[in-house]
Write a structure and sequence with these properties.
- This protein is of the alpha/beta class and 502 residues long.
- It folds into three domains: 93 residues; 217 residues, Rossmann fold (3-Layer(aba) Sandwich); 177 residues, Rossmann fold (3-Layer(aba) Sandwich), CATH 3.40.50.
- 34% of the residues lie in helices and 23% in strands.
């Protein structure tokens, strides 16, 4: 977006000038966007209020406030929310505004890359006036989080997306997310929203559970069981209070949570669902969310990774053979979806095979044994794609090929190194190696990538990159299109949809 650097004429002196430019830069920051509270308090100060947290903008300063906010937010995704900001400052505005298709809210310290990515992509698809974004997460001087949202929505919002994270080291926090979700406690906000999408790009798993660990050693809490409850219980508390205010009576949620949700949606409260991106196994968290009446879905970014893979391949002469590595049993569905996407983007002259590795794990990150189980040719007959096993006894193992390994996440990269050792020993004529992973955790830093030695790395923008963007061998894949498609998929049914239970 173009920066229109215009300072309103009433901003005079170094103190106000510095405040203005801090606010101007904060409004445009994608990594650390200014919080709603800071925007409103500082805007009040800039138009002359001595105590902006206590005073409303007087009538004589309404034009100043409007000029200030229009200038500050020009060409940003806060621009659509200027009526809400003016209303919060006490300036009279029209109460009926044009609907917004997507409102993106930050749900973590600083911001996920998807916060800006999803907003930018949706604006490109639907128009900038149909999209808005804001950051409710601020901090006190002691770094404790301070959550403050828009007091009143004047626009009708079709889809509200809260982008959050469970990765503490990268600014995420479930407790922070649960506080942000309490913004729905405000009916002047929540009752103007059609659907609330709570998006945790990488949903935490059960990493503490080690196979073979002695049962009596410790009592461990599984993230995939605890996290859904941690998020849903505060939501029920919020919804229960909204229900009591609207209806003037209590309802026993414990008996039938889905019936309660249906009642609340009937009153105008948004439908709610939880979304993640490319989770390894969504069965357990999905079941826990469903028990409490909420939909939990994993977004498939295989098309975005396939498109970036083809870009990489086209930078050189296209290979005659592309082998895609399914690194374990759990990766087979992802790998085959990816293969189906890739074959549709490449000419028929490029042959594609999938190599399936059989792997016996001792525990997470430690493998007892690995071997190539089978190899299948990917065949496209008039749009019908099949995986045809080859005879390994007559297979040409020395045929020159480009290899790509596709996984859900990259952490220590230990198992990827084991895979690479096996693949390199089995196929002696690999022309190029590509390693792709949706979530770049890389808890040991970037050095493991050097030891892995791929020619190109493809990582999704689901987590903060932490130096990845500076490497020439790394491509960041924007998964925003896949998230956008899931959000606006009108075929999705919610548990709250089926009838009206009384």
């Amino acid at each position: 977006m173009a920066n229109v650097e215009i300072v309103p004429p009433f901003i005079k002196g170094k103190t106000l000038g510095d405040m203005y430019w801090r606010l101007y830069d904060g409004v445009r920051s994608e990594d650390d966007p200014v919080s709603v509270r800071t925007l409103l308090i500082d805007s009040g100060t800039l138009v002359g209020l001595e105590k902006p947290e206590k005073e409303m903008v007087p009538l004589v300063s309404w034009d100043k406030a409007n000029e200030l906010l229009q200038t500050l937010t020009a060409d940003t995704y806060l621009a659509a929310l200027v009526p809400e900001f003016l209303d919060a400052l006490g300036v009279a505005v029209e109460k009926e505004q044009q609907p917004i298709s997507l409102l993106v809210v930050n749900g973590r310290h600083k911001a996920e890359p998807l916060w800006a990515g999803l907003t930018r992509y949706t604006a490109k698809k639907l128009g900038a006036d149909k999209v808005a974004a804001f950051n409710p997460v601020g901090h006190y001087k002691d770094k404790q989080s301070r959550i403050a949202g828009i007091p009143k929505l004047l626009h009708r919002v079709d889809q509200l997306a809260v982008i959050a994270s469970t990765q503490t080291a990268k600014g995420g926090s479930l407790s922070l997310l649960s506080e942000v979700l309490r913004l729905m406690r405000n009916p002047d906000f929540s009752m103007h929203v059609g659907t609330l999408n709570i998006i945790i790009p990488m949903f935490g798993g059960s990493r503490g559970h080690r196979l073979g660990q002695r049962k009596g050693l410790v009592y461990e809490v599984m993230e995939t069981v605890a996290s859904p409850k941690y998020l849903v219980l505060p939501l029920f508390d919020v919804m229960f209070k909204v229900w009591r205010e609207q209806m003037g009576k209590d309802l026993l949620v414990e008996k039938n949570p889905i019936a309660f949700l249906k009642h609340l949606v009937g009153l105008g409260f948004p439908k709610i669902r939880f979304l993640t991106v490319d989770i390894h196994n969504d069965e357990l968290p999905g079941r826990k969310f469903k028990e409490m009446g909420f939909k939990f879905e994993s977004i498939d970014p295989s098309l975005e990774f396939a498109q970036e893979t083809v870009k990489v391949l086209r930078e050189r002469k296209l290979p005659n053979l592309l082998r895609i590595i399914a690194c374990d049993e759990g990766s087979i569905p992802r790998t085959e979806r990816f293969a189906k996407r890739v074959i549709g983007l490449l000419p028929r002259s490029v042959k594609i095979e999938v190599v399936y590795i059989n792997k016996k794990r001792i525990r997470a990150g430690e493998v007892d044994s690995a071997a190539i189980g089978r190899i299948c040719r990917v065949v496209d007959k008039k749009g019908k794609i099949s995986f045809v096993p080859v005879d390994l006894s007559t297979y040409d193992w020395k045929k020159r090929a480009t290899h790509i390994t596709n996984d859900d996440m990259a952490d220590t990269v230990k198992t990827a190194m084991i895979d690479d050792k096996l693949i390199s020993a089995s196929f002696p004529n690999i022309s190029r190696k590509i390693f792709a992973a949706t979530h770049a955790i890389l808890s040991k830093g970037l050095k493991p990538l050097d030891r892995l030695g791929a020619d190109v790395y493809l990582f999704g923008n689901t987590l903060q990159p932490n130096g990845l963007a500076g490497r020439k061998d790394v491509r960041i894949v924007d998964v925003s299109p896949a998230v956008h498609q899931k959000i606006f998929d009108k075929s999705i049914r919610f548990p709250q949809d089926a009838g009206n239970v009384r």
